[in-house]
Write a sequence for this structure.
């Protein structure tokens, strides 16, 4: 464990940010419980995300179940492809992510896209060892391990279901409802914040790889030919980009504006570039250290089964002077029409949108109306399929109908149909529009990793009055507690006055902690460790002065000033 990891984990447990679930029973890897400070920090990040990605961008939020029937994941491709590579140690029995062992111990930065055979070769070549006990893993079998948690739905039921591995499918599967809600008008966006589940092989680093995670996802549905993002809103935002090419050359990051990134062809999709611009501003607003931040493009063999391009937002969560430690906090994927097409094909519903033309267009079409009174008696139960095959041929190769006999194939057998029985004709029709499958652009945020990044980037140590202190320099937007209120002592009316001030601030909508235990210095240190931006102290002067005043201490500078109580709420907000 790196130094900053250790410090963040220790502080998180001691001060109520997060800790391993059910430690009383030995704990369970990959599950973390957010304590009072952590839950508030997480909620603040989620609310800030909601305000930006739902409300401000004009999108709508939904809430789907976390369990879905098997058919959904059969269609989405997760049943076949949602695997990671596992290797089991013959000595200690520990299971590990095989690709991660390769990445941690060779020059290869990305091994996820390699085949299991290639990973086995690399284990041999580098004589790689079990990260737990050091036993050699050369010659051990590397296998695919399915990551979805399986369950059954209902008692005595063979009705298989899965805990969703991404919130996205809950949006895609209901697309026919949402397109009606939006009256068939593209583009539109649907958001969702909720739990997803992945049976990770090796959970790690507290919140970074967990088995129950919170995602905040936006599925933005567009007509790829018509819809353009409002680039002028973000065109000058600077992006730090690590493209596929730069990674292969082991080159440097590029600093380009959103507009330049598209014009220079570094980011192919304008929509992806637009969302990177929006997200950059948002990360900055909640206190991500943008000096320890970048966007990294996926290598081709790293792309998920649904994506044609993907850029990850990554944060370096190492301490100054430590080896860099980049974690993926968000994926920005261009999913094309992959998901809607799959659900359109696998279900009974229509996932297309009718796109009306500006002007009706005349179009020549070729059609057949076969003589079924002939086909029926002649070909029996194959007659219907032969008629369908004739229609397909009329569309694909109308010239074939100039022959006397038309050859079509049904279930591997060839049939020759006299052309006069086909009823072939060319005609001109007027079309008012067409059915299209929208494309999807998806910014997908991992909230647990956002919480971890904010903790790691806010963590600081300094010296106050000759004493070392630990301080979380949270941005006010996300700080779990906004103001702490202390009486100098809980006697002679100070406690009552302090409670009165705390209630008054709460009624103004501030998140307030009242604390009267221990000396003032210790109370300041406690609030510094949970990142409270302001501490308000009620002392004897408060009771004596008219108008009443209190001291307000600033977390970062530790400077104090006297403020009138009747101006306190306004002063703080
Ligand atoms: N719908 C797309 C999707 O789920 P993903 O890249 O697999 O894409 C999106 O996940 C985000 O979810 C990641 O960028 C990461 O922040 C977070 N995430 C994924 N697996 C996680 C895990 N096991 N623990 C914590 N966060 C995770």
């Amino acid at each position: 464990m790196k130094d900053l990891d250790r410090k963040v984990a220790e502080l998180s447990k001691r001060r109520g940010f997060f800790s391993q679930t059910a430690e009383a029973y030995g704990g369970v890897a990959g599950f973390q419980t957010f304590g009072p400070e952590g839950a508030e920090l997480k909620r603040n990040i989620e609310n800030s995300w909601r305000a930006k990605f739902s409300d401000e961008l004009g999108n709508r939020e939904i809430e789907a179940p976390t369990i879905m029937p098997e058919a959904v994941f059969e269609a989405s491709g997760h049943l076949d492809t949602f695997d990671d590579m596992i290797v089991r140690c013959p000595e200690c029995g520990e299971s590990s992510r095989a690709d991660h062992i390769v990445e941690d111990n060779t020059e290869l930065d990305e091994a996820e896209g390699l085949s299991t055979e290639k990973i086995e070769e690399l284990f041999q070549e580098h004589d790689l060892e079990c990260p737990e006990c050091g036993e050699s893993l050369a010659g051990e079998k590397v296998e695919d391990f399915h990551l979805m948690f399986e369950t059954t739905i209902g008692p005595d039921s063979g009705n298989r279901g899965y805990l969703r591995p991404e919130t996205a499918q809950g949006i895609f599967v209901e697309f026919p409802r949402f397109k009606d809600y939006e009256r068939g008008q593209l583009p539109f966006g649907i958001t969702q914040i909720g739990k997803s589940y992945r049976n990770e092989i090796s959970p790690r680093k507290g919140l970074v790889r967990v088995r129950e995670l919170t995602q905040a996802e936006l599925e933005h549905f567009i007509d790829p030919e018509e819809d353009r993002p409002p680039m002028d809103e973000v065109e000058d935002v600077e992006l730090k980009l690590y493209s596929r090419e730069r990674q292969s050359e082991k080159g440097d990051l590029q600093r380009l504006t959103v507009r330049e990134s598209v014009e220079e062809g570094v980011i192919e999709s304008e929509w992806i570039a637009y969302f990177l611009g929006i997200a950059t501003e948002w990360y900055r607003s909640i206190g991500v250290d943008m000096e320890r931040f970048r966007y990294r493009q996926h290598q081709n063999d790293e792309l998920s089964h649904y994506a044609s391009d993907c850029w990850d937002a990554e944060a370096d969560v190492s301490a100054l002077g430590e080896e860099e430690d980049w974690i993926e906090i968000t994926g920005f994927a261009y999913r094309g029409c992959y998901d809607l097409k799959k659900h359109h094909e696998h279900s009974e519903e229509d996932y297309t949108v009718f796109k009306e033309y500006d002007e009706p267009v005349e179009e020549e079409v070729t059609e057949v109306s076969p003589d079924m009174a002939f086909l029926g008696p002649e070909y029996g139960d194959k007659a219907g399929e032969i008629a369908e095959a004739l229609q397909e041929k009329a569309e694909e190769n109308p010239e074939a109908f100039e022959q006397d006999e038309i050859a079509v194939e049904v279930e591997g057998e060839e049939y020759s149909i006299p052309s006069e029985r086909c009823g072939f004709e060319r005609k001109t029709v007027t079309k008012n529009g067409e059915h299209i499958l929208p494309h999807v652009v998806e910014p997908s945020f991992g909230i647990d990793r956002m919480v971890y990044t904010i903790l790691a980037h806010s963590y600081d140590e300094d010296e106050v009055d000759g004493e070392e202190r630990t301080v979380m320099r949270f941005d006010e937007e996300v700080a779990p507690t906004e103001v702490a209120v202390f009486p100098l002592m809980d006697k002679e009316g100070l406690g009552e006055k302090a409670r009165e001030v705390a209630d008054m601030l709460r009624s103004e909508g501030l998140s307030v902690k009242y604390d009267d235990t221990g000396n003032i210095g210790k109370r300041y240190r406690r609030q510094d460790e949970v990142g409270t931006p302001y501490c308000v102290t009620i002392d004897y002067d408060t009771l004596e002065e008219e108008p009443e005043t209190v001291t307000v201490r600033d977390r970062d500078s530790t400077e104090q000033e006297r403020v009138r109580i009747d101006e306190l709420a306004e002063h703080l907000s």
Remarks:
- The CA atoms of residues 153 and 159 lie 5 Å apart.
- The pocket of glycyl-adenosine-5'-phosphate is lined by residues 166, 168, 198, 200, 209-210, 213, 215, 217, 328-331, 442, 444, 446, 448-449 (CB under 6 Å).
- Residues 36-56 form the longest helix (21 residues).
